[in-house]
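To: structure subgroup
Subject: Chain for Friday's discussion

All,

I'm putting the inputs and outputs inline so they're searchable in the archive.
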Amino acid sequence: MNTNEFDFKGTKVSGFLMIFVLFALCVGVGVSIPFLPGNVGFVVPFVLFITAFLCIYPVGFMTNEPNNARVMIFFGKYRGTLKKNGFFWVNPFYIKKKITLRARNLDSPPIKVNDKSGNPIMIGMVLVWKVVDTYRAVFEIDTSSLGATNGVEVSIQTSSARMAALMKSFEKFVNVQCDAALREVAGKYAYDNNDMQSEETTLRSGGESVNAHLERALNERLAMAGIEVMEARINNLAYAPEIAAVMLRRQQAQAIIAAREKIVEGAVSMVQMALTKLSQEQIVNLDEDKKAAMVSNLLVVLCSDEATQPVINTGTLHQ
């Protein structure tokens, strides 16, 4: 049993040609009836009428647009997929399931998951997907359990309505797999680096590498349904509300510490430059006690959060 998609090899005729043939057939029947013998006069028109009805029955005609396909089923057996564009007539006993091959967007709403560190986070994604294997898409997954219409409803729907219902069921299948892939990927990365010196990839800093990991995970899950993910990106990332305030304070503390480190590093550099200049220019000779006092005063001025108030010494240098 063939379980892969292949091109439809059955008979298909141009729909316009078939309309012309049917018109000629009807005209021929109408013209020939007066010349038929009495015993055959009712049999031949009846046979020709049945033949014309089977040919002109609307199910036999179909239109296939660009990036659409028709999965051809003949009495329960897969006969191939028709992807050629145009207006055709085929055997009316074929079931022709219409399916689109166009790219579709899916904006997955944020879900709550735990990152590598166990912190609850909210993460969402957007992806672009399309059907690449019509056999797997139609026969490998149960679309009826995903919200597709039942047989009674489908029988009274148009081809476009049936295709819309089928694609809606595919979208629900993709959405479920997106949740599973997001949970898998989020569990392998921390939300952010707790250690400022750590270079480990995180969800916030990972960027393209995390998106590529997510895309691979989705393609592995959706290959069974003949669906390919063309692009997947995280578009929503935040701490869960219950810990957001605490994590915000932690991030603020880390930012303050990093800023303090830069300030102290710059202050020490400026003090060293000042002492070096005073010594090289021989402006004043300072002993170790005076240097220590000067260093202390400069560090207070340079590292203070607020503007310092200077105290002017109006006495001698030693007072």
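Points worth raising on Friday:
The chain has three domains: 13-100, 104-239, 246-303.
Strands lie at 13-14, 61-64, 68-74, 77-82, 86-89, 94-100, 104-114, 120-131, 227-239.

D.
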